[in-house]
Amino acid sequence: MNSKKLLHISFVDDSLVASEAGEAIVFDDSLVVQAVGCYFDDLTIESFRVYDLEPVIFPDAQDYAGIVIGGSGHFVREADQLLWMNDIAVFIQRAKEAGVPLLGICFGHQLIAHVLGGVVGPFADDRRDFGVVQMQKLKHADNHILFQDVPDVFDALASHGDYIHELPIGARALARSESCHIEAAEFGHMTYGVQFHPEYTPSVMLDLARERIVDEASRNRFAAGLSNAPHATQVLRNFVKHAVED
């Protein structure tokens, strides 16, 4: 295992890439690098991009100190349509069995839960969390490695329409919000997930808003309510520190 090498898995929805309007929604694998890269000496972050219509041979998880599975324009409920879903399920299981620290973000969070036997689905009213969302740490998360130097209540940036309805057996929730009761979770030894996006910035949210909010006045109100979410980003940095320095 390389003590200074992190793997970031990102997903590219071919239908979005093919359309000019969808370019801003493609999940940028440089965001994780920008959020954590300069905080760790000699850290290498390798990007592995998964394309819808291409065969996927995942690298050996044991070659890395830690793995981040990022967000996606896809949904776990599309599993039957995604050629790579079985492959990444095997990859997640192998990484977990090998004890390689693993963090899922948004879709990645849901994907880990799904692979391990949890239940993922949409909000009942087809709405989505989008923008700044207030998070509440649960009591047993006070001393958790993900939440070191993170207050009990903190803001995060979010963009999701699905969430984990039921955790897999043996998993536990670490944080919640008003609309989502599992905003962060531990899925057993060294395996974690967050529903929010710790790598996002207000400018990323504005790019997404240009696609989702057509009315200019509404978009301007949304922009005025945005702010940085440093404590959410700290969660990501805590994971990386745990993976490469512990």
Structure explained in plain terms:
This protein has 246 residues and is α/β, with parallel strands linked by helices. The protein has a single domain (5-245), classed as Class I glutamine amidotransferase (GATase) domain (Rossmann fold), CATH 3.40.50.880. Helices cover 28% and strands 25% of the residues. It has helices at 14-17, 30-36, 85-98, 107-115, 202-212, 216-224, 230-245, and strands at residues 5-12, 44-51, 66-69, 102-105, 119-122, 129-137, 153-160, 162-166, 172-176, 184-186, 191-194. Strands 2-1-3-4-11-10-9-6-7 form a nine-stranded mixed β-sheet, with helices on both faces. A two-stranded antiparallel ribbon has the order 5-8. The longest helix is centred in the C-terminal third of the chain and has 16 residues, at 230-245. The chain is globular. Residues 18-26 have low confidence and may be disordered.
Structural class: alpha/beta
What's the SSE pattern?
EHHEEHEHEEEEEEEHHH
CATH architecture: 3-Layer(aba) Sandwich
Query: What is the CATH H-level superfamily?
Result: Class I glutamine amidotransferase (GATase) domain
Number of domains: 1
| CATH class type | Alpha Beta
Q: What is the CATH topology assignment?
A: Rossmann fold
CA gyration radius, whole angstroms: 17 Å
User: Between the first and last Cα atoms, what is the distance in angstroms?
Assistant: 13 Å
Mean pLDDT: 90
